[in-house]
Amino acid sequence: MAESKSRKVIERNIAMELMRATESAAMAAARFLGRGDKNLVDGTAVATMRNVMSYIRMDGVVVIGEGEKDNAPMLYIGEHIGDGFALQADIAVDPIDGTTLVARGLPGAISVIVLSERGTIHCPSQFFYMDKIVTSAEAKNCIDINASVAENLENIARAKKRKVSELTVIVLDRPRHEKLLFDIRSAGARVKLISDGDIAASLQAAMPGMEVDVLMGIGGTPEGVISAAAIHCIGGAIQCKAWPRNEEERKAAIAAGVDVDKVYKTEDLIDSDDVFFAATGVSSGELLKGVRYFSGGAYTQSLVMRSQSGTIRWIDSRHNFGRLDKVGFFKMR
Question: Distance between CA 155 and CA 170 in Å, rounded?
Answer without folding.
Answer: 17
